[in-house]
Amino acid sequence: MVHFREEGFFLGLVCNVMKFLSLKNINLNFGGLRALDNVSFDIEKGSICCLIGPNGSGKTSILNVINNFYKAEQGRVIFNGEDITKLAPHKIAEKGVARTFQNLALIEGMTVIDNIKIGRHMTMKTGILGGLIYWGKAQREEINHRKDIEERVIDFLEIEDIRNEYVHTLPYGLQKKVEVARALAMPCSLLLLDEPTAGMNADEINDMVRYILDIRKYWGITVLFIIHEIGVAMGISDKIIVMNFGAKISEGSPGEITEDPIVIEAYLGKREFKDEKNPS
């Protein structure tokens, strides 16, 4: 019988279980431009993690690599213990990874409810012929999916009053909420949100913050999101990852990030950092 006496062995087992999403040494290039430079980080299951950084720092590229919309030249993406680096985007979605986009990807000529239903298409079991006939099994399946969307997603995001509106008639902030609803319509365990509060007023931002917290609290979904409102990131994140020029310059809890001189210098500049520490 083999006995493992070192505490480090057991600690390693625990850490491996907790790593729900891992990026390992990701490099991404666009021609001669290095978009991501040896980026690595881990996210724990059930946590809320935020990516922050200036425009062009590589935040959206990270989400696109996770989905394999962008193919990394080097590195691996491990999700729920499985290497998904080379899987097609729709296969990654089937594994339980849902997302929204920085630029709206809604179908303007469709209603809110129909846009949300698109998020469920990969779970449909009815074949093409059954869908064309739309009778019996196909009809029952769509009714069941629609009921779940109405009772779970629409009620959760409080968009009952706009469910039959065409999305192109809605304000930008509401369209962003519809995108979140479409992502949640797909059964998922990891939700990637690319600037979910963009274009929103203060009240809408507060609502979105509450939704993100409740998504984790009631559904147990792990959330990785990009945001420019630093105060929001600090207020709701378990971990913050700071990007600059395609590289990760810091990661840690909100408290650790606010005390990191590298982060302060990247956001405020070296002079401001010195003046703040030694006010005259």
Structure description:
By secondary structure, the chain is an alpha/beta fold. The protein has one domain (41-277): Rossmann fold, CATH 3.40.50. It is built from twelve helices and ten strands. Strands 6-7-8-3-9-10 form a six-stranded mixed β-sheet, with helices on both faces. A hairpin with a 2-residue loop joins strand 1 (19-30) and strand 2. The longest helix has 21 residues, at 137-157. It is globular and about 50 Å long.
What overall form do the CA principal axes indicate? globular
CATH superfamily: P-loop containing nucleotide triphosphate hydrolases
Order of helices and strands: HEEEHEEHEHHHHEHEHEEHHH
The tally of domains stands at 1
Biggest β-sheet strands, sense, barrel: 6 strands, mixed
**Beta-strand level of the residues, as a percent range?**
15-25%
CATH architecture classification: 3-Layer(aba) Sandwich
CATH top level label = Alpha Beta
In which order are the strands of the major sheet placed? Answer: 6-7-8-3-9-10
Helix-residue proportion:
40-55%
What would the CATH topology be?
Answer: Rossmann fold
Distance between the termini: 67 Å
